[in-house]
Every structure is written in structure tokens, then in C-alpha cells.
Amino acid sequence: MNRTEIEPRIEILGPVRATIRGREVDLGPPKQRAVLALLALRAGGHVPLDDLVVVLWPGQPPTRAASLVHTYVARLRHALEPDTPRRRRTNVIASVQGGYRLAVGDDQLDLFTFRAGIREAAARREAGEADSAFARYGETLEQWRDPQLGDLAALLVEPDDIGPLRQEFLVAALDYIGLGLELDRPDSVLPLTERLAQTEPLNERVQARVLQALTRIGQRAWAIERYADVRMRLKLDLGVDPGPELTAAYREVLDAEAAPPPPGPGRGGVQQPPWRGPAPVVDELIGRSADLAAVCDLLGEFRMVSLTGPAGVGKSALGLAAAEELRERFADGVVVVDLASVRTGPELTRTTAAVVEEPESWHAGASMPLAHRLHDRKLLLILDNAELVTDDAADLVDDVLRGCPQVTVLLASRELLGLPYEAVYPVRPLGVEADRGPSAAPALQLFARRAAQVQPGFRLTDANLEAVTSVCRALDGLPLAIELAAACLRTQRLDALVDVVEDPLRRIQPPRRGLPSHHRSLHAAVNRSIELLGPAERRCFKALGAVPAEFGLETAAVAGRAVAGGPETLRVLLDRLVDKSVLEVMHGSSGRRYRMLGTVHALARQLLHEHGVDAGPPAGRCGCGCGCGCHAGR
Questions:
Q1: In the chain, count of helices (H) and strands (E)?
Q2: Residues 549, 585: Cα–Cα separation, whole Å
Q3: Is the pLDDT of residue 434 over 60?
Q4: Domain 533-611, classified CATH 1.10.10.10, yes or no
Q5: CA–CA gap between residue 239 and residue 181 (Å, rounded)
Q6: What SS3 state is found at 304?
Q7: What is the pTM (predicted TM-score) of this model?
Q8: Predicted pLDDT at 260
Q9: Who is most buried in 60, 272, 415, 524, counting CB within 10 A?
Q10: Which CATH fold would you assign to the domain 8-110?
Q11: Closest residue by Cα to residue 76 from 85, 89, 88
Q12: Per-residue pLDDT for 361 more than 60?
């Protein structure tokens, strides 16, 4: 094999990058990096030109696709062999019949180094050198910086090669964890086990290892809670019960000596009350200290608090942060019920009961009302993403609060329950304008923090402040939209992102995992709000796509002639849109006005363009079209 005089090192087990003598090489735009990524995935093998074209242009490739690939290869050759004459730059990327081959040594590609390290660790284990094998496994696994291969997936749009590669890491990691448990080193493998559990929530073998590791370091209670969470997810997502391996691991938990748990992560080393359901927020909230204090104060005064606001404003994150702050006040802990995929009353009851129930009582009192199960408990019940089952959630909360004097309920929803004792806290977008410098603008701080996760070293500077402000302003200061936009910097430049946010619903779609489906794209988040609307409300919403994002009743009346029976009916419909966090109402010297966030207004315009506005109800009928004279709109 010919080798360059200065050998580059190529890495794909994290961000796709190349270095020469420790200095990073500029690999060019995303499609050019994608060429190197696919060649590295199949290093040493023949990669046909057709395969490269399909990966770069999954739909209809341009007529000059082959020529563009040749250009990308030529530029990569120059980057990887800068000191080699132009026509001799074939030592790293070699030309073969109908395609190319990446020709690198074992020490030039991190994938090769990883595989060699795992083979060596397995050989040591086979030879009976368990301690040495464990150390070698640990050293090698540290080289794999992203188990989900997010950069590769973004560049290659999930080709057939990526799934097996992820599985390769998973198998090696499980071998390492298994060996660590055999050597009675659960504390050493627990961090990796927890990391795997986040990316493989339905993998029973991974979850079984979590239970074993927790049990063997004395955290038996936490292991029981983890099993409850996993069992619920298997039931709700796959409709199955735990299999033999996970069941056996749980039996090991139950059979373990019920000794007092060691000091946990609570304040002062005191074990905190239990937490069931989706975990507390991992990262600190930015720009929400005042909101957090206000919500905590409300929860100290009222037993029913609702966080409401538009799509992507951060209601869930704020609610979970408040629950973590107040966790010690509730002896029986915190119960978080995610209702994102729930659509009916029976589903709501089953989902809530599945989180609330103690693991030992799954098969006892299956028909017992929730209020009876909680009547003597002191806990904080969080109902998250409840907007699609508002009526049923109101009934459930009313029953629980009337029958359970020590239960407090925190709701995170785009629509209020409408209960007489409901305390409301509207969650607003983050501030954008940096009047007192970048540190005074929470939206900019959030963008910078998320940008640094995909573009190491990113900081707010005088040079990029205007562009970042422009992006955050275009996205209304919505945390979800800002996070999604910042994630795009993995493959785009900041100056290009300024143009992308002009059409955020279609163009901001970075890969996202481990989140509810309506948080994986901005379009999905905003479109969920439209699911809340009844027929008349939906027609009104579409009609508003023809008016500015901020408008008065008179302007709305002009656009909404086809959907409303008169000014009063229109006002009722607009108020219902306010109740469902689609509109914001403002009162000023010029009277009552309405405002729609830019992202929501973009969807209204899109729906208006695609479908137009349906004909309104006949004269003399109500605004909801039912003919009863009501203004229900649902």
C-alpha cells in the first residue's frame, strides 16, 4: 500500500474530521465531507460512484452528479495530501474501476483502531486475563465519541452501513459492562450503562445491565423505579411485557438485601424522594430563573398549577425543573406522566396509572380508581403535553385533588383545564434583544450553548452577534426553535442559517433522537397546536394566514368573512385561539389587538396557500357550524 509522506488521520466515530500532524484539515462543505465519510465507512473496499451519488442526492440527482463527485474527490485529495503533486494525490483516496477506495493504515482511521482494540480486549479475556481485558475495553470504548453517530447520520442520511456500525459499538459496550459486573466493578461501568440506556430505551439487555449495576452498588430502590419506567415504556410503545433477561435482572433486584440506600444525589448527601416517569432536566435552564422562582411559589400556595404557552416555549423543561427544585417537599416523590401520544380518556387513565403504580402492585387492584391509589400519598403529579386530552385530564385532576388531600398537580399544556381552582402561569419566549450586551439576552445565550455542542469553541462575539440575534429574533425567542436552529450548525454556516430561518418550518430539521415526536422538528411542534382546533377554529386560523402576524379585530373580520357569522362569533373564535396558545391578546391605547408568533403565522400561511379557507356556515348559524346557536367551535 502506498502511503503519503505525511499521513492524515481520519475520524468518523464522532464528528467527521481529519488531521495532519495534529492540525485539523478543512474538509469543505457537507456533501464533500459526506464523500469522505462513506469512503471511511467502507475503508479498504471499493465504493462505486453510483453509491456516492445516491448518498449525496437521495432523491433526483443533478445531471452533473458524477462530475460533482469527481470534483469533491479532487478537493479532498488536495486537503489530505497538500504536499503531494496534483496528479500523484492517490495515496489516500485511490481510483478504482467505477469508483474510489480509501487506502489508510490501521492507525490512520479511528474505526480501524477501535476494532483492533476490541479484538485485543476479547483475546485477553479469552486468555483468562480479565483485568487486562477490562482495562483495554475501557480505553478502546473511549475512542468512540458518539454512539449514535449523529454527524455520519446527518451527512449520509442513514445509509445501510450506519445501523450495523452502531450495533458494533453496542455489542462491545455490553461485553465491557458484562465483564465489569463479573469483576464486581459496577461503579466503573454504571456511567456507560446509563448512557446506553438513554440511547437504547427499549433494549432489554441494556436495561437489565442498568438494574444489575444499580443493585450491586446498593441503589436497590432506584433499580426498582427504573424497572417500573422500562416496563411502562415497553407496554406503551411496543405492547409487550419484559422478556426473560430483564425479568431475571428485576428478580435479582428484589432478592437483594434490602439495606438502606447509600447517600444519593440529594442535597447534603440525603437520599431524595423517588422520581417516576421522564427524568429531570439534564441541563440548566437559561433565562428562566425568575420563571422558576414564580412557579415554585405558586406550587407552594396552590394545589393545581398550569404552565401554558405556545409550541416550543419550554413548558415541559420549566415544569421538570420546578419539580426537581421542590422534590424534597413531597415524601412520596414526583410522578411525571408524558401524555404526548395519548388521545383518549381510557389511554390517559392507563398511562397515568402505569407510572403511578408501585412495581409490586401492578397486578393488584387493577380497576381501582387513581384517586383511591393516591389518597394517602404526598406527591407532585405532573401531567405533561396534556393538550390533546384536555377534557379528560380535567376530570382526572378534579377527582385526584378532591380525593387526595396531599397531592399537588402541575400541568404543562397549550390549553388550560378550566378548573375553578387552577392557578395559571403563562410561559413566555426568551428575550432576544441584547441591549446590555450578549449576557443580557437569554435567547442568544441558549443559541451559543447549543451551538457549542455541535461546533466546539463557538462563542458569542462582536463578529457573530448580529447574525445570532437575527436568527433568534426570526424564531421569536422560542427555546425549541433556537435549539433546532443551533443544531443545524453541524452542517451549515451561521451566515447561511440567517437565510434558513426565513422558512423555519421546512428548512430547520436537524436529526433529533430521544425526544417526543412533536419536539423533533419545528413543523411537528407547531402543527400539534392545530390538532387542538375544532373545524370553525381551524378555518379561522387558516384565514389569519392572509393578515399580518399582529392585527386588530377589524383586520381579522376582513380575512375571516368566510368563517365567521359576525363580529361576536369571530371574537369568540379568536379568544379560543388565545386559550389554546395559538394567539396572544394585547391591550393597549389602540384597543384590543392579537399577535401570532412568526412560526405559527408561517403555518397559517402555508395552510392557506395549500387548502384555502372553507366556506363558512350558512347565515343564522353558529360559528362552529353545528346549527345549535352556540359558539363552541369544537
A1: 26, 15
A2: 12
A3: no
A4: yes
A5: 30
A6: strand
A7: 0.56
A8: 45
A9: 415
A10: Arc Repressor Mutant, subunit A (1.10.10)
A11: 89
A12: no
